[in-house]
Amino acid sequence: MTEITFTDQVTPGTVRRMSTGPSGLLLGVGPTGQPMTLSLFRPQPTRIFVALPEFQTWLIAFRAVCLGAHLSVIAADHRRWLTLADAVRAAGGTVDVLHDADALPGRGRPYRPSLIVDEVEAVPATRRLGAWQSVLAVGDPGASAAVAMLRASDGALIAPLESRAAEQLRRAYALTSGQVRTAADIGASEVAMATFRRVATVTVVPSAEEYRLLFGG
């Protein structure tokens, strides 16, 4: 598993980071109002385990497109993703909604990275990915296979964090009981963001413009 580091300084004007490389994506704000970013794209591939409400997965994908990423969605039910695909294209981005991994880009580029949202485990951890390419591997954190999937990922974004999922996260990332209790006590719009021995909570909500573009508000 590739190391992800947090920058914990929360003095005024400081951004708290879950860093995987030079390109940062704003996730939301932390408990004291500090910006929280996730760096998805780097010269080596990145894999993030995701178990989130659909609107938050959409939001992360859309923000990645706004960084210049090409979006590939692998899903059994394409209808659920058509609204997001239309919003991406209307904003000038590119997206493919696929049934399998056959037509995925081989790699990304520094200013044209590749983001894959995989709902059907079409891109297992054993698959070789390219540079500047990231996978959001959608899974069930309470499933028996979740510990292995979490350990094969560079980090995880989970909400809500129920008791079974919290225990799986603790085992996979060597978290303390106190860390897990803090992460589990999250609100409706909050996400537990975790990696090896580190966990933080972040509020992930759309801006007014994102809401208008994605959800028709």
Tell me about this structure.
By secondary structure, the protein is of the alpha/beta class. It is built from six helices and twelve strands. It has helices at residues 54-66, 82-90, 146-151, 163-173, 177-184, 208-215; strands at 5-7, 16-19, 23-29, 35-41, 46-51, 70-74, 95-98, 114-118, 133-138, 155-158, 190-195, 198-203. Strands 7-6-8-9-5-10-11-12 form an eight-stranded mixed sheet, with helices on both faces. It has a four-stranded mixed sheet with strand order 1-2-4-3, with helices on one face.
Could you say how many structural domains there are in total?
A: 1
User: How do the SSEs run, as a string of H and E?
Assistant: EEEEEHEHEEEHEHHEEH
The CATH architecture comes to 3-Layer(aba) Sandwich
Give the overall average pLDDT: 88
User: Which stretches of 5+ consecutive residues score pLDDT under 50?
Assistant: 1-23
CATH superfamily: P-loop containing nucleotide triphosphate hydrolases
By CATH reckoning, the class would read: Alpha Beta
Distance N to C terminus: 40 Å
**Helix share, percent:** 25-40%
What does the main sheet amount to?
A: 8 strands, mixed
How many strand units?
A: 12
**Dominant shape:** globular
Keywords:
217 residues, eight-stranded mixed beta sheet, disordered N terminus, four-stranded mixed beta sheet, single chain, 12 strands, 6 helices, globular, alpha/beta, Rossmann fold
